[in-house]
Amino acid sequence: MFTQIYLLILLLLSINAIEGSEFTINEATIQEIRTAFKQNKLTSKVLVELYIQEIRKLNPIYRAVIEVNPDALHQAQKADEERKANDPKSRSGLHGIPILVKDNIATKDKLNTTAGSYALLKSVVPRDAGVVKKLRESGAIILGKASLSEWAFFRSSTAPSGWNARTKQAINPYVATHDPCGSSTGSAIAVATSMVTVSLGTETDGSILCPSCANSVVGIKPTLGLTSRAGVIPISPRQDTVGPICRTVTDAVYVLDAIVGYDKNDEVETRKASKYIPHGGYLKHLKSGGLKGKRLGIVRDYPNFGFGNDTEILNKFKKHFMILRQSGATLIDNLEVTNYNDIIPMFLGEYIALFAEFKISLNAYLKELVDSPVRSLADVITFNKKFANVEKLKDYPQDIFLEAEKTNGIGELEKEALRNLTRASKLGFEKLMKENKLDALVTPYSYGSTVLAIGGYPGISVPGGYDKNGAPYGICFGGLKGSEPTLIEIAYGFEQASKLRKPPPIKNQL
What we know:
Residues 1-20 form the signal peptide. The chain is an alpha/beta fold. Helix content is 42%, strand content 12%.
C-alpha cells in the first residue's frame, strides 16, 4: 500500500513539473523547441512524452494517427545524449524534433507502412523511404505514422476523404462536418491540433495543398523530384511528390531543407531536380519584406482554376489582395489563359495516365517488399473482396482499383493522354507565367492543384481565414519548376503580414 501511494506521489510531482514548465507543446514551433532545448527547459524525451500524451487524448476524436513509434522514446534519449555531448549532428534544425510521416511512406522499423489498408498490415519494407533516411540523418525523431485517405485516395471514388480501414474517418478539428480534404488528412490534422510539431504528406494531385487549406496549416508541394519518392507507396512517378505540412512557413522550410536532394533509389528525377536547390538551403528565403517587387497573377474567369466569377469567393479574398499589395507585391489581375477551351480537354487525360501508371508502379513496389500478403494490384483487389463483409473493414467500391487493373501498360491511349498533359502545361500554365513575367499564380483554396500536379510544379498553401461557420480556407501560391525560393519569400511575406491562422477551438478538443 505504501509503495502504491509513493508511486502515485511521484507521478503527480512529475505531471506538475511538466505542467509548471514555461514550455507548452500547444502551437510550439521548431525554433521555440530548439530554444527550450538550449536553455535546458526541455528534453527530446519529455517532448515525445508530451506528444504521446496529447495523441492518447485527442486521437480517439480526430483519428489523425495510425501508429505511434514504440522506439520514439529511445530515439529521443539518443538525441538528448547527442545534444549533451555537443555532437555536430545536434546542430541540425530538426535534431530532436518529433515528426509524423504519412502511412504511405516506408519506415524500416517497428512501424507498419500500409496506406491505411489491412492488405499491407505486417508487410516488411526493404528500407527506409528516401525522405525518412534524410530525416534520420538530420536527427529528427520518427514519432509515428499519420492516417490518410486509404491508398492515398486512389481506391474508391465514393469513399470520403480522411477515411481508411485502419482508423476509420478522420475529423476536421475546426468544424467536424467540414471535409478534411485530400489524402494527407492525418498529417494536417495532427499538426493543426498540436499532436505533433511537423509532419510529412504526399501529393499526386492536391493531397498536400488541399488538407493544408482545409485544416488551417501550411503545406509545401515541392517541384517533382526535389524530394525522393523512393519507398513511398506510389500512384504515379510522373506526379507523386513528398512535402512538409506544418503550422508555419518557417517550420515547413526547416523540414523541406532536411528532405530535399539526390537519392540513388529515385535517381533520374532527384538528379534533375537537385539543380534547383539553392546553395545554403531554403531558410535564407524567410525574408521580411519578401513580397516586395513580386509579380503575382490572378485569374478570374475560369472556375476551379482561378477565382471564377463567384461573388462570395471574390469578396472573401479582397482583404488578401489588399494585404499582398500593401506588402509590396504587384497583382496582375484578370489574366487570360490563351486557348483555354482547347487546353481544358487535355486535362481529361490525367486519369487515363494515372490508372496505367498506378498499376505499373504499385506492382513494382509490392514485388520489392521483403514480405507481404499481397504482391500485385490484383491481389489487393482480391483481398478487399474477401473481407468486404467484415464489419471493421467497411467496404467502399474499389472502382478506381478496378479501372487501373484493366490497363495493360502504357499503350497508344496513354501515350496520347501524356502528350496532351505535357501540351496543357506548356501552353497553359508555363505560357501564362512567362508571358506575364509572374513570380507566382495566386489561387483560392487548392483550386490550382491539378495544374501544378500534371506539370510537376511547386505550390505553397497558407492559412487564409475562416468562413462564417468557422471552417478554414487557404490561399495558394504556385510557380514554375524550381521556384521554391521565390514561393517561400511570397508565402512567408503573406503569413507575416496577415497572421490569419488560429488554433482549433478548445471546445472541439475536449
